[in-house]
Amino acid sequence: MDDDNNEQHRLTDGVSVEAFKTFLADLQSEFPGTYTEMTTEDACKQLVVPRTQQDNCAYVDLLRKQSSHEHVGKATVFVSHAWRYKIADVLNVLLEFAEEQAAKEDGQPVFFWFDLFMNNQNANVTANLPQEWWSTTFKESIANIGRVLLVLMPWRDPMPLTRAWCLWEIFCGISSEGTEVNIRLPKSEEKELEEAIRGNFEAVTDTLVRVQAERAEAFNPYDKDMIFKAIQDGVGFAALNQAVKDQLRAWCLEKAVAAVEAMRARGEDETEAFAELCGQVASVLDQFGEYAKAVEYYKLAKEIFVKTVGERHPKTASVYVNLGVSFDSMGNHDQAIEWYEKAKDNRVEVLGEKHAGTAQVLNNLGNVYDSKGEYDKAIEHFEAARATFAEAQGEMHPDTASTCSNLGKAYSSKGDYDKAIAYHETAKEIQLTLRGDKHPTTAESFNNLGSAYLDKGEYDKAIDYFHRARAVYVETLGRMHQSTAHTCHNLGVAYRIKGESEKAMGWYEEAKEIKMRTVGETHASTAQTWNALGAIYNSNGEHDKALAYHKMANRIYTEALGEKHPDTADTYGSLGNVYSSKGQYDKSIELYEKARAIYVETLGPVHPRTAEIQNSLGIAHSSNGEVTKAIEAFEKAREIGVATLGEEHPSTAMASFNIGLLHDQHGDMEQACAYMQQAHGVFAATLGADHPNTRAAQDNLQRMRQHVADAARAGPAAPPQVVPGHSSTPPLAGWLQKRGRWRRACRTCWVSLDDEDHLVYGKSAERPPKRRVPLSSVVSVELASAGQELRVAVPGRTFVFRAHASAGATLEDWCAAIRRGMCG
C-alpha cells in the first residue's frame, strides 16, 4: 500500500467493536493484576508497541492482516480522550456506547477511530506536519466521520479540557456542520455526577468556569505551539472556550434531566428524594439561564414535597424561595413576589418571625421591590430583614452586612446618596472586621461605595473605590472572574461619565474579554458590556460601530432573557440614542416607543425606567420640532418620577429642567423660571453645587431671569419681523476646530447656522453634515478657557469648538449668533 493510500485510510478507517473487546480481554489476560490501573499510555508501551514493533506499523494494520473486513471499516465515531485515562475505563465507555447504538432501530455497525490503534506508535507520524494540515485535512476527516465521542473524566475536573489536543479535537467536531458530539462518562463517574447534582449543584456548574483553552498543555511543546497558532489564526480562544462550554452545558443539562427521568422510570417519583433531586436539577437549569425549565422542575419538587413532608415544612419553603428567584430572573416580578410571600408565611409559621430564614425571604422581597422601582417598599423589607438578621445572628454578621448593602443601593436609587453611603460604610466596616481587607465580600463593599459616589457625582472617589475593589478581586479570585469583570465595567462607566473616553473604552474591553472567557459571548452579562461599548462609539460619532454593538447586545438579551425583558428594552433605548445622534429622529422615536412598551408591560407604567425613556422621547420630539409632544413626554416623565422617586430626586429634576428649557424656547418665561428653579434646587441639594447638572441649571436660571429683567426694562416690544421661510438667526458659516467628545484632539470641520435654526457641522460645506443640532435643544452657550473655547451644551453633551486660522468670524460672533438663535 503506498504512502498516500496509507494516509487516506489512516484518516478514514475505524476499528470494530469486536476488536476492542478482544483488546480488552488481552489486557486482562496479560496483566491480570494491574490492567484496571493501566493508562492508555501504559497500554501503548506494554502491549501495542511490542506487537507492532517488528513490522513498524499501526495496530490497525495488524487487524487488517488478521481479517480486514471483520475488524476494519469506514470510521463512524472519532474518539477524543486523554492518554492519562485508565484504558479499561475508556474501552468500557466505547463498548457501552456501541451497545446503545446497536439498540437503536437504525443501529449500524460502529467503527471507532481511536488514535492508539490508528497511528503508528513506533514513529511520530504527526511530527512536522504543517499547521494547514491540522486546520484543513484533520478537521475535514472528523467532519467526514460525522461523530465525535468525548470520553470525559473525572467529571469534577475533566482531563480533556486541560489537554491541547483534546480541545482541538472537540472543537473540530463542534465547528463542523453536521458533526454530532457525544459526551460519555464511565458508569462509576456517572453515579458520582448524579450524587453531586443531588448534593451540590454548584460543583457541576463550576466545571464550566475552568474551561480555558489557553491554559491547556501538550506533552510536546511543538504540538502546543502548533495548536495554539491554529486556534489564534482561526476562531480564537474565546470562541473555542465558548464552543466547548456550550457543549458541556448542554451535556450537563442532559445528565441532570436524565437523572430525574431515571428515578421516574424506577417508580420513585413520589418520594422525598425525587423532590430533592428535582429541586437540585432546577437549580442547575437556573444557573444556566434556563429559567422556564427551572420553574417547571421547581414546581414538580413543590408538588412532591407538599405530598411527602407537607405544606408547612422548610423544604417546601425553600422551593417557594427558589421559584421566586427564577421568576425574578425572568423579569416576572409579580410572580416572584407571590412565591416569596408564600415562603415568608411558611417560614414565619415554621421558623418564627425572628429567624434568619425569614429574614432571607424579606431580603429577597426587598430586592424584587427594588427591581420594580418601589423603593419605599424595598427599604421597608430590607429594614425588617436587617433587624431580624441582627437579632438572630448579631450585628457583626455577613447577612447583616449584605442587607445594609441592599439598603444602600435602595437609598441610592431614591437619590438619598448620603444615606446610601452611610449604609455601605456600615457594611464595609462589618466585612473588614469579619474578613479583613483582602476578601471578595469586602471588595464588594468597595464596589458598592464606588457606585454610590458615582451616583452622587464624586467621580474620583468612585474610581478610587472601584480600583480598590478590583485589586482585591484580582488577588483573591483572579483576573478571569466575573466579579473582576463587573468592577472593570464599573470603572468604564465612571471614566465615561467623567469624560475620559479612552480609559473607559479600555476598561469596557477588559470586562468584555473576561466575560467572554468566563460566561461566554451569549450571556446577559456580556451583553451589558457590548451595550456600554456601543454608547461610547456613539459618543465618539462612530455611529455604524455603535449600532453594531447595540444590535449584538439586543440579540444576546433577546436570546437569553426574551424580547419582553427590561434589559432587552434598554438596548432599544440605546439604538434610539444612536439614531437620535444621526439626526434620524423618527427612527429614534420608534425605538424609544418600543422600549417604553416593554417597560410598561414588564415593570409597569409607573417605574423609573419608564420615566427615563419618556425623557428620551421628550428630547427626540423636541429635536424633531414636535414641541407639544415633547412637553407631554417630559411632563409624563416628571409625573412618574414624582410618583416613584419623589420630587427631590435628580431624575425628577431632570424632567423639570427639560420642561423649563422648552418653555424658555417658546417665551413662557414665568413657567421656564419656575421649572428651572425647581430643578436647580433639587440638583444642588442632592448632587451638590459643583455638579455639572447643578451648574447648568444655575446658568440657565440666571440667563432666564436676566431675560425677564431686560424685557421689563425695555417695555412692550413688537415681535421680530421674520421673512417667511427664513430663520431669525443670522446666517453664519466657516471653519472651526471641533474637539472630540472624549478625545482631547481637535479636528477641522465646517460649521454653519442654517435657515432652520440648527447648528450644523461636517467635513466640508459640500458634503452632507455629520450632525445637525437644533438650537431649541441648546441648554447653554459660553466662552471658556480665557475665550479660547466655545462651549455649546445640549442635554447629555457639550460641544467644544476652537477658532480656526482661516475663520472669518470670531468665537464671540458664534456665541452671540447661537444665543440669538436660542431666544428667537
Automatic annotation (TrEMBL):
Keywords: Repeat, TPR repeat. Residues 729-823 form the PH domain. PROSITE patterns: PH_DOMAIN, TPR, TPR_REGION. Residues 707-734 are annotated as: Disordered. It holds the Pfam family TPR_10. TPR repeats lie at residues 317-350, 359-392, 443-476, 527-560, 569-602, 611-644. This is PH domain-containing protein.
